[in-house]
Amino acid sequence: MASKSVLITGANGHLGFRVVVSALEAGYKVRAVVRRAAAAAQIKAAKSIQSFLGNLEIVFVEDFLKDGAYDEAIKGMDYVLHIASPISRPSEDYVADVIGPAVQGTLGILHSASKTPSVKRVVITSSVAILDVGRNTPLAADDLGPVPPMDTKFPNPFAAYGASKRIAFNEATKYLNKAKPNFDVINILPAVLLGKNELVTETSGFMSGTNRYLVNMALGNDALTPLVGSVVFVNDCADIHVKALDPKVKGNGNFITAGESVIWSDFDKIIQKEFPNAGFKMGGKADTTPVVFDTRETEKEFGIKWVSIEEQVRSVIGHYLEVARKEGN
What we know:
By secondary structure, this protein is an alpha/beta fold. The chain contains 9 helices and 11 strands.
């Protein structure tokens, strides 16, 4: 039987690249979408990709906000893993830089999939930020939070990021209810992603993305905003994205990917315990927004056993030290 094909957007991101690797390991033919030639070169040079290059195709979509941006890239695909989305970062205009692109990117991939008869399922990376995080009870995957108006004045990058995910989810739901396409959709809701990013080869690369929270703590830098009190190993999250393509998994649902609840200040002790001789300054502070997620449905459907927070720390900080040694720091 011929291998199934999957289009993966955001393929050079922290999660996106790991999903590319997981999909290749699972036997899929992967068409990875990037915006720039440098990103394609990074992916092709990665050690974990080398034995799968025959099943990997890289295509360019320089502006995914254009109408029909994905129309060519998606042709002939069986599945789509839509991971590309703006990350949490400071901005003068959150609507233009974060919310608008998140909504347009999601609707754009759905519009293109609707025009492609071969597509059977679209899996979208959403976030636990779409849930009603302020509640004190364990949150299941359908416990959605309120959707803010697009023109809300957001106090910080995380608030804008959460709004981008809620609004994108809401707009996608409205589109799907109206268009009733031939494919189904699954939303994956990750907590804070931690784990080695193989594409990061310089210490400066640890200053963006969610791994920065651990590295900054080790370096004595404070987090700018409170962090959701739940983490997930990036490999676990990537594997679930790929397993969600299996037609045996019921479509048109949401799945939370989150390990145990955490207090971010506790990571200080874990880093010092795991790397007692690293010479880190330590003392970086990160406040926690307490939350408990009900992941029983995810665990039942995918048979997942979450990687421990200690292993996540070893993955991130161990990689940082490896890169720092190569730089001579």
